[in-house]
Amino acid sequence: MATSRYVPRIADGRLASLFAGLPAVMVTGPRAAGKTTSARRIANDILRLDDPAVATAVAANPDAALRRAREPVLLDEWQEVPEILGAVKRAVDDDPRPGRFLLTGSVEADFTTRQWPGTGRVVRLVLHGLTQREIARSVDQPGLLDLLLNSDISQLGISGPPPSLDDYVD
To answer: CATH topology for 12-154?
Structure first.
């Protein structure tokens, strides 16, 4: 049986930096990009709002749910209980300590059609799918743009035979 290990992400450093200085960070991005996996590594408590029982309890009193959770708390699939954003706003207004709330969700809600309570309180970080550097577990190595900007083109060579059509499909 294969065991899964966390694949370090390029965004990990940025997430840690933002979370160290801000009370709330929302990790957005496409479905299955690793938002929850990345965020849960720094959370003490997780409210999985895609669980109907948890969602019902949180929706009944989101402020109380946040008070009972051990910070930092991950509000996973926050869009299932959008009232949680108002509770986060109130909690941050009352106590702006950094590193309190992480929000993740598979759907990026439309924040432009109405006033969103997270403005000025919740900062978004976009997490994309795995990059080649992440898959190769070499996130500490310079990326393509860094190499191009530093004119170190010698490191851009492809090792091994060129990829076939099957390789691209895989």
So the answer is: Rossmann fold (3.40.50)
